[in-house]
Write a structure and sequence with these properties.
Blueprint: H1 10-20, E1 27-31, E2 40-43, H2 44-61, E3 68-72, H3 77-88, E4 92-96, H4 102-112, E5 116-119, H5 122-132, E6 140-143, E7 158-160, H6 161-170, H7 172-185, E8 191-196, E9 206-210, H8 211-224, E10 232-235, H9 242-254, E11 258-261, H10 268-275, E12 279-282, H11 284-299, H12 303-320, H13 326-345, E13 352-355, H14 362-370, E14 375-380, E15 387-390, E16 403-404, E17 409-413, E18 420-425, E19 438-443, E20 450-451, H15 455-461, E21 468-477, E22 480-486, E23 491-492, E24 498-499, H16 501-508, E25 514-520, E26 527-533, H17 535-544, H18 552-557, H19 559-573, E27 582-587, H20 607-613, H21 615-622
Parallel strand pairs: 1-11, 3-4, 3-5, 4-8, 5-6, 6-7, 10-11, 10-12, 12-13, 13-14, 26-27
Antiparallel strand pairs: 1-2, 8-9, 9-20, 14-15, 15-16, 17-18, 17-19, 19-21, 21-22, 23-24, 25-26
Helix pairs in contact: 2-3, 2-6, 2-7, 4-5, 8-9, 12-13, 12-14
């Protein structure tokens, strides 16, 4: 579906939308002023007023074209206003994850030479104050919220967002001509944002994404996915990540969709019931949690309830796969008995979910499709703005990330001899192409300009022929891209066999007893796993079986619990090749999280961190005899 307005830069996207909806009551954004309040909507006229005020403030402050302005904030309305104001004055948005410790914030601020720093809460302001003196280019900090500790506001380099807006409004008339000139000077080739990598393998690198990079991706997304004025999107993935930035923000704006901000990642389930979104952009972790909750509730039900559920699931799968006639009648009954309740849990208005950031287990995707909750899985990197491929509505193929998007070419390079063995361009699509496995490459307008002040890293990522090397392994299956895993995640066992842990871990995600699982076994004679149990499930099991324990550490050491997991691991491992089977494991008493460092902000596992943190358990597994 075409975008609602014409645009070649993000500045034009905002300006043309603001003009289209001028003097209307069209909602652009909505947020909760506090947890007890209802959602407050913001019209496009109000957005224009706020963006103009902040843009005028930026000009008065002295922000020149291509100057960097940093934002350290959760998803919220102010984030969007500041971003749009930065685009209006020709600046570059430098986004930071709120989970970053002060030292990493300092590194990014210094590396990007940011002049102005917008932060959200008192927690983030504290970080800014701590590092301010070590960042020579940083001149001022603007806080969205008034800190609970008033002493934070005693620094002369800190002011409140409300005050900045008031200053901007006072000089709007004076800055009007400059703002008009600056916004008209923004070109597609200009850098719009620096998005820094997580830095799990060294210092973070700032991917330079131009207006053209992102705009081309937004337009290609609209070619593939229907987003319109009647849609409402719930935004909760970090806006400093390119997936949410392009998919859940700019692409939604370009279709005229309303963007509602979740209070936090933890309140998504509650906010879906309040917002009734038609589109939700998410990572697989959300779908895994919903799936496991449903699975548990079914297992706790009576034999009749389980039978009805399994019947409904079978009917749903057959209907999704194209069967009609009697199945259509049965599907209506299955919806009424089972699936309508699940749809109500997601707000009752979902047209489709968009999944990215990590691989969606095929079985979990198929479950949602059977329930009539379509998931459009896509694939890409920060460095590709980010989308390279995606499944189209009505053409979903679980286990693949769909077809290459328009304007982009994806290639497969054989690992053994670096020969490109297959490539597909979005406009000229051979749906029957099947290839052997290799590294996935990208070439097209979505390829980043390069890494900020890091030519060496840029050349390592983008070769002389313009191919961006993703570091992911995959292949084409009937013209759709299928991802295997990251090259760097590959495990080479003692026998020299290459094993990719991702598909093995995905297999176990449907177990009602397993919340998280990481495969280990580099240079070992067998594969093993570190397992985070579903704590609610094992506590319930302990209660039902009179297993006494003092703490979670006690419970996971109980022999009956260990035997339960031995049985579960053995059962799932039957589907694996001999060298892939999980032969041993250790249970962990705490889940992996962003806060404790084992997960990225988009909830992907940091394998190196986990190996370091639980090295003693891994050593214990492999210190005995081979399994």
């Amino acid at each position: 579906m075409p975008t609602l307005v014409a645009f070649e830069t993000l500045t034009e996207l905002y300006q043309n939308l603001a003009e289209k909806y001028k003097n209307s009551d069209k909602t652009a954004f909505a947020f909760k002023p506090n947890p007890k309040a209802e959602y407050k909507t913001v019209t496009w006229d109000e957005v224009r007023d706020d963006v103009t005020a902040v843009a005028s403030y930026l000009l008065q402050f002295g922000i020149e074209k291509d100057d960097r302005v940093a934002i350290l904030s959760e998803n919220r309305y102010e984030w969007a206003v500041v971003d749009l104001a930065i685009q209006m004055v020709g600046g570059i948005n430098v986004s930071l994850y709120t989970t970053l410790p002060p030292k990493q914030c300092e590194y990014i601020l210094k590396d990007s030479e940011s002049k102005l720093f917008f932060v959200s809460t008192g927690i983030q302001l504290k970080k800014a104050i701590e590092v301010f003196g070590n960042c020579p280019d940083l001149k001022h900090v603007v806080a969205f919220d008034e800190a609970k500790v008033s002493s934070y506001m005693e620094h002369d380099f800190v002011s409140l967002y409300e005050s900045a807006c008031e200053q901007g409004k006072k000089v709007e008339e004076k800055m009007a001509e400059t703002l008009k000139k600056r916004s008209s000077q923004t070109a597609p080739a200009d850098v719009s944002t620096l998005i820094y990598t997580s830095g799990t393998t060294g210092s973070p690198k700032g991917a330079m994404l131009t207006h053209h990079n992102i705009v081309s991706n937004v337009k290609a997304a609209h070619d593939a996915i229907d987003i319109g004025e009647e849609d409402r999107c719930l935004s909760f993935l970090p806006l400093c990540h390119s997936f949410e930035r392009t998919g859940g923000y700019y692409a939604m704006m370009a279709g005229g969709a309303e963007i509602y901000y979740a209070e936090s990642v933890d309140t998504v389930a509650k906010n879906m019931l309040e917002v009734h979104p038609s589109i939700v952009v998410s990572v697989p972790r959300l779908f895994e949690k919903i799936y496991n909750l449903i699975n548990k509730s079914v297992q706790d039900g009576s034999a009749i309830q389980q039978s009805i559920f399994n019947w409904a699931l079978g009917v749903g799968r057959r209907y999704w796969q194209g069967e009609r006639g009697l199945i259509s009648v049965q599907k209506k009954l299955a919806d009424k008995l089972v699936f309508d309740k699940l749809k109500q849990r997601t707000g009752g208005n979902i047209r489709f979910f968009v999944s990215g950031g990590a691989a969606l287990p095929a079985d979990i995707g198929a479950f949602f499709m059977a329930a009539g909750l379509n998931i459009l899985e896509g694939y890409g990197l920060t460095e590709t703005s980010p989308v390279m491929c995606c499944n189209r509505y009505g053409e979903e193929e679980m286990g693949t990330v769909g077809k290459v998007i328009n304007g982009v070419t994806v290639g497969i390079q054989r690992l053994s001899d670096s020969k490109i063995i297959a490539q597909i361009s979005g406009e000229d699509y051979p749906t029957d192409l099947t290839s052997e496995e290799g590294e996935i490459l990208n070439r097209g307008p979505n390829t980043m300009k390069g890494y900020w002040k890091n030519e060496k890293a840029t050349k390592e990522m983008i070769d002389d022929d313009g191919w961006l090397h993703t570091g992911d392994v995959g292949k084409f299956e009937n013209g759709r891209l299928k991802i295997t895993d990251r090259i760097k995640h590959m495990i080479v066992n003692a026998g020299g066999k290459n094993i990719y842990p991702g598909p093995i871990e995905d297999l176990f995600k449907t177990s009602p007893w397993i919340d998280q699982l990481v495969v280990v076994g580099e240079k070992q004679s067998f594969m093993a796993a570190l397992i985070v149990p579903d704590f609610e499930a094992i506590e319930k099991h302990a209660k039902e079986n009179n297993i006494e324990y003092g703490s979670m550490e006690d419970l996971i050491q109980n022999e009956a619990i260990k035997n339960l997991y031995k049985k579960e691991i053995r059962s799932f491992s039957n589907e694996l090749a001999s060298h892939e089977k999980i032969r041993d494991f250790r249970l962990l008493a705490k889940e992996f999280s962003v806060e404790t460092g084992e997960l990225t902000p988009t909830l992907k596992v940091k394998r190196r961190v986990i190996r370091d943190k639980y090295g003693h358990l891994i050593e214990d597994i492999f210190s005995g005899d081979s399994k």
